[in-house]
Amino acid sequence: MLSQIRPALVATLFFTLLLGVGYPLAVTGIAHLAFPAQAAGSLIRDASGQVVGSALIGQNFAKSEYLHPRPSAAGTDGYDASNSSGSNLGPLNPDLAKRIAKDTAGLQAEGAGPVPADAVTTSASGLDPDVSPANAARQIARLAAARTAPVSEIEKVIADNTDGPWLGVFGQAHVNVLKTNLALDAAWPMAHPRP
Q1: What is the pLDDT of residue 180?
Q2: In the chain, what percentage of residues exceed pLDDT 90?
Q3: Which of 35, 74, 105, 151 has the highest Cβ tally under 10 A?
Q4: Residues 29 and 124 in one domain
Q5: Could you tell me the CA-to-CA distances from 24 to 16, 27, 29, 134 in Å, in that order?
Q6: Residues 91, 16: one domain?
Q7: Is residue 192 part of a domain?
Q8: What does the pLDDT look like over 15-42, one tens digit per residue?
Q9: Does one domain contain both 30 and 68?
Q10: Whose CA is closest to 161, among 191, 139, 189, 192?
Q11: Rounded to the nearest 10 degrees, what angle do helices 140-147 and 151-160 cross at?
């Protein structure tokens, strides 16, 4: 009996060390060598070098001088990375329909044109850091007025922060909200920056 238990324990210990310790450390090391910024969390720093967020995790910007993200269902205030989730409301749920109708009516009252879907729907994670170019374009007039900046200059900042599909084919064009807001702050500093 002992002759059968010993090899089983040795094999368990060996594979635990190999696959539970060695392999994760090797993959992490390779990631840090090959993709250091991404392996470190795709952190974004402001002009002073202070970390202000990640390019992969959305933040809530509510002031009129900032590009607004899509709604979030993560956490009570939204964009809580420790509570990443969608609303779990199905497309036929009346609560979801009411919320979308209310949000759409509020955005239509601003009179900035059609309301893109991502302006009133949450992402599956609740942490989407990007908006569609249509959503960003819809906010240009508000941003220009709040920052007393020319519309053409706001358009340029948004265009500079718009990424196309990966390799020109995969995915859709998107605008990173945090990077755009940092660029807006760099061009037109606000007295009380963020959020």
Answers
A1: 92
A2: 19
A3: 74
A4: no
A5: 11, 5, 8, 41
A6: no
A7: no
A8: 999 999 999 999 999 988 888 877 877 8
A9: no
A10: 139
A11: 120
Phi and psi of 37, rounded to 5°? Answer: -65, -45
* C-alpha dihedral sign at 183, 184, 187, 188: negative
Residue 53 lies in a domain: yes
Q: Are residues 1 and 93 in the same domain?
A: no
pLDDT in tens, 54-75: 888 888 888 888 998 888 776 6
Looking at the 3D structure of the chain, how many domains does it have? 2
Which of 83, 81, 58, 54 is CA-nearest to residue 71?
58
pLDDT at residue number 77 = 65
Q: Are residues 28 and 46 in the same domain?
A: no
Least confident of 16-20, 125-129, 136-140: 125-129
Q: Is 193 within the bounds of a domain?
A: no
Burial class (CB in 10 A: 0-12, 13-18, 19+), 51: exposed
Task: For 152-181, give one letter per residue: b (16+ CB within 10 A) or e.
Answer: ebbeebbeebbeeeeeeeeeeebbbbbbbb
Q: Kindly state whether residue 127 falls inside one of the protein's structural domains.
A: yes
Residues 18 and 79 in one domain: no
Domain, as residue range, for 11:
1-40
Is 144:155 a contact under the CB 8 Å cutoff?
no
Q: Which residue has the tokens 């850091």?
A: 129
